[in-house]
Design a protein that fits this description.
This protein is an all-beta fold. The chain contains no helices and 42 strands.
């Protein structure tokens, strides 16, 4: 890769690891204005579901298409869909004539029309103006079709891929481009192979070896002359929910498994899961991967959407960049996405496991749960009243550039948000914990944004942050799963992790144990690995330990490993990757 050097008054250091270029900048004094950023989970008004006794938010199984120079985002179980000019600000459309209470709708563009295929006997629908939102039915075909994925080949032929089962394979059938009825046989394509594909084994750490995975969520891309059939497993409720890929020379196969699978994998961090997705090129030609992240506490289908940059290597490997994938990233058209670590500003998490206090605590929902980097746990106040507050001491005066607020909706009693029933709050900063000034004001102009992300107009220097509730929607208590402050803390980055060792499990080559020496000053570690020394595209974040078992490997190939050390001042990348077959 050609090195791209940046110009600035700050000191720029470039390190090359294989084909991955890593840029690190020191932030002294006032920070130069950064391009706009976003942060996963995607900041959307996720729809409430009411499933028996559980009330929870959900959006999953997403797809994004470009139509009339706009981005259109569809997901499961929503009251409509979203439209955007830039993939940052989204407008919600409530359409007429669409079956909305469906899982995993497939949307594509055929002959200048937007086609919505609902699957599961809901039919096929079309519109030439989705902004107005009037749709008409084409047919009612979809018998037995679950998790559909329509694909239009470069020769104009249309194919339907589908399947969602722990028994039956993903299959394909050719579809007429006008009637959207089958014109050929249904062909079986791919099934699970858990004896070889460790990531297909169910469980949060791929250890439920006697359980059957669900193979689902297919999606097709043609890149160059190759067909990339992606699919999800082992189950949407697991942290290891991921996407693998098979390759072929024709749209209907035969397909060959890509040994670098899963190509979309995020088993660790604040929000986990990166399966049942869509890979697409934006208006500038940069690839993106919109995927399903999991919470799965109140219900297994309690899920969110996550968006990652993607790219193709020179030899055709499909890569989804999930490295610190829930930290701030540059929005589309801000910066090329060529490598793992140049996708966003050098902002680190400042609030991880820092000392916190609150106005009140509900039962055993300890205040520390708002700072443990786990969306599955949360702090809750005893009420949703105005004046409930949560505060954190970051221990040092830090430069804060962005804040993400993840609300937990503890005790929500309604599955419908009415106009004006939104999160309203304000955030204050302090240097000493006594004198406070407001840096974010949402007292009167709140929104229904359970993962509200605020990039500050200018960086703020502070040691303490405090958020105070004004109104919590849906009858919920004031509750937070993550008050996450991003920027730069003073001090040194950790030293490099040393004495990294990796041992493949001889009786189960789907697994390997990686260990290393503790690094003074490191808050956590990131194990990067891959099937070549310059392709360490998979990542495992490790907290409170200096060893990890990775059970997501493919038994048939060798792997290379290295370990990065991380703290609130920056990342120290690992040494030359080592291999263990």
């Amino acid at each position: 890769m050609k090195k791209r050097w940046l110009t600035s008054k700050t000191c720029i250091i470039a390190a090359v690891i294989g084909s991955v270029v890593v840029f690190a900048a020191s932030y002294a004094g006032a920070q130069a204005k950064q391009p706009k950023t976003f942060c996963n989970p995607v900041n959307l008004p996720y729809n409430f579901q009411n499933n028996g006794a559980a009330t929870y938010r959900e959006a999953a199984d997403p797809t994004i298409v470009i139509f009339k120079e706009k981005y259109w985002l569809f997901a499961s179980k929503q009251r409509g869909y979203w439209c955007s000019d830039d993939m940052v600000s989204w407008k919600f459309i409530e359409p007429q004539g669409l079956p909305l209470d469906v899982y995993a709708p497939s949307v594509t563009i055929v002959n200048g029309r937007m086609i919505f295929f609902g699957g599961n006997n809901t039919g096929t629908f079309t519109t030439d103006d989705p902004l107005i939102g009037k749709w008409r039915n084409i047919n009612g075909y979809a018998p037995g079709c679950i998790d559909p994925a329509l694909f239009v080949d470069t020769d104009g032929k249309v194919y339907l891929y589908n399947g969602c089962s722990d028994v039956n394979p993903i299959q394909v059938v050719q579809i007429d481009a006008k009637s959207f009825l089958p014109v050929g046989p249904h062909l079986p394509l791919i099934s699970a192979d858990t004896k070889v594909h460790g990531w297909e084994v169910p469980g949060d750490t791929n250890t439920e070896i006697n359980a059957k995975p669900w193979i689902e969520g297919s999606y097709m891309n043609k890149i160059g002359n190759k067909y990339y059939l992606q699919y999800a497993g082992p189950g949407t409720q697991f942290k290891t929910y991921a996407d693998g890929v098979y390759l072929a020379d024709k749209a209907d196969g035969p397909f060959v498994y890509a040994d670098y699978s899963p190509f979309s994998f995020k088993p660790t961090g604040f929000i986990t899961g990166a399966g049942h997705s869509a890979t697409f090129a934006d208006k500038q030609g940069q690839y993106w991967h919109i995927a399903t992240g999991t919470i799965s506490v109140r219900h297994m289908f309690e899920r969110r959407l996550v968006l990652f940059p993607a790219f193709i290597t020179k030899d055709g490997q499909l890569v989804t960049n999930t490295y610190l994938g829930d930290y701030p990233q540059y929005v589309p058209n801000q910066m090329p996405q060529h490598s793992l670590m140049e996708k966003g500003p050098e902002w680190m998490l400042l609030s991880y496991k820092k000392q916190a206090t609150a106005s009140s605590v509900l039962d055993n929902e300890g205040v520390n749960k708002a700072f443990d980097e786990d969306i599955k746990t949360w702090w809750s106040a005893r009420s949703g009243d105005a004046g409930e507050w949560l505060s954190v001491d970051m221990e040092k005066t830090c430069t804060i550039s962005a804040i993400q607020l993840n609300f937990a909706d503890e005790g929500a009693t309604t599955a419908a948000i009415t106009p004006g029933d939104s999160y309203r709050y304000y955030i204050e900063a302090s240097a000493n914990g006594k004198e406070w000034h407001t840096i974010v004001n949402r007292k009167k102009t709140g929104t229904d944004a359970p993962h509200d992300y605020i990039e500050l107009p200018e960086p703020v220097k502070a040691r303490y942050l405090r958020i105070t509730n004004v109104h919590s929607p849906a009858g919920a208590k004031f509750s937070v799963s993550g008050l996450r402050a991003f920027g730069i803390a003073p001090g040194n980055k950790p030293a490099m992790a040393k004495h990294v060792e990796a041992a493949r499990n001889e009786s189960n080559p789907r697994s390997a144990k990686i260990k290393w020496d503790a690094v003074s000053g490191a808050e956590f570690y990131i194990v990067r690995y891959g099937i070549a020394p310059d392709k360490l595209f998979s990542a495992y974040q490790v907290y409170d330990a200096t060893a990890v078992d990775i059970n997501a490997l493919n038994a048939s190939v060798g792997y290379y490993f290295t370990v990065d050390a991380v703290n609130a001042s920056g990342i120290t990348v690992g040494s030359r990757p080592m291999v263990k077959y």
